[in-house]
């Protein structure tokens, strides 16, 4: 029997995309928009709820193995890479609301320009840009895994479920080279997953 993420994990994973997309689309274009007190309060409430949901998600998900649905044991170095991407996504998802809340705090203290608020706004924008890149890598990696038919995709995605590992000769060859590469890296760094 293949392992699958729980229904709650799937609801959190897919439901969160709606919240994230909304947060990105409703973004503020200019600091001066925060002169509108109603908007400032709304932003603070939204950022607090967003932060709380990210933290709940992190603590709930941390009990599950990475590549939970994989049919074959995954090289430790490959797991390490995936975990690093996941952790970096969480870092961005926490930085976005925290820097947003700091911006709101500074603005409320009448610190509306200068190097302090500029650097926090810079960090806020950086967290957003890095999150786009990491999510793009994550989605490409998930699609690649689906093409290989490893079982990881089906553990989280309800569509286009895998039936068995691919029989495609070229994909099998690439997969073989990839496994060798990760095992070699593991040898170099003597990395062992716990
Ligand atoms: C806003 C967009 C997304 C974010 C922030 C995100 C984030 C994450 C994170 C952090 C995990 C690790 C488990 C967890 O802690 O929840 C995960 C797992 C997963 N995601 Fe996403 N994801 C996004 C979109 C997608 C999309 C569009 C796909 C598929 C096309 C996808 C496929 C998967 C799969 C297959 C797993 C399971 C990996 C495993 O079991 O190790 N994700 N996602
Ligand atoms: C989870 C909550 C939030 C998300 C997802 C979010 C998202 C974004 C994004 C994507 C940008 C554009 C960054 C760029 O152009 O590189 C942005 C800019 C900005 N956000 Fe947020 N934001 C959030 C919360 C907040 C809060 C609470 C405040 C302050 C009340 C805030 C104030 C700003 C400001 C001032 C800018 C920059 C405007 C400028 O460039 O002058 N954000 N936000």
3D architecture notes:
There is one protein chain. The chain has one domain. The model has no long low-confidence stretch (mean pLDDT 95). The chain has helices at 7-25, 37-61, 76-108, 115-148, 152-156, 169-189. The chain is built from 6 helices and no strands. It has 194 residues and is mostly helical. The structure holds protoporphyrin IX containing FE (2 copies). One protoporphyrin IX containing FE binds at residues 23-24, 27-31, 34, 40, 43-44, 46-47, 50, 96-97, 100-101, 103-104, 121, 124-125, 128-129.
Give the secondary structure arrangement, pairings included.
Blueprint: H1 7-25, H2 37-61, H3 76-108, H4 115-148, H5 152-156, H6 169-189
Helix pairs in contact: 1-2, 2-3, 3-4
Structural class: mainly alpha
DSSP helical segment count: 6
From the spread of the alpha carbons, the general shape counts as: elongated
**Mean pLDDT over the residues:** 95
The total of beta strands comes to: 0
Distinct small molecules: protoporphyrin IX containing FE
Percent of residues in β-strands = under 5%
Primary descriptors:
71% helix; elongated; binds protoporphyrin IX containing FE; 6 helices; 194 residues
């Amino acid at each position: 029997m293949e392992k699958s993420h729980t229904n709650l994990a799937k609801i959190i994973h897919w439901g969160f995309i709606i919240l994230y997309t909304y947060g990105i689309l409703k973004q503020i274009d200019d600091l001066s928009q925060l002169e509108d007190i109603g908007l400032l309060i709304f932003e603070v409430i939204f950022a607090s709820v967003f932060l709380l949901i990210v933290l709940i998600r992190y603590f709930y998900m941390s009990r599950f193995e990475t590549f939970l649905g994989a049919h074959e044991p995954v090289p430790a170095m490959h797991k390490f890479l995936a975990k690093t991407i996941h952790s970096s996504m969480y870092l961005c998802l926490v930085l976005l609301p925290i820097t947003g809340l700091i911006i709101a705090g500074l603005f409320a203290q009448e610190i509306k320009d200068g190097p302090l608020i500029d650097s926090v706004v810079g960090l806020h924008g950086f967290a957003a840009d890095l999150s786009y890149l990491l999510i793009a890598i994550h989605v490409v990696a998930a699609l690649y895994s689906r093409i290989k038919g490893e079982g990881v995709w089906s553990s989280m995605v309800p569509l286009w479920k895998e039936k068995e590992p691919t029989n495609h000769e070229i994909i099998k060859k690439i997969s073989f080279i990839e496994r060798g590469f990760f095992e070699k890296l593991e040898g170099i760094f003597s990395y062992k997953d716990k």
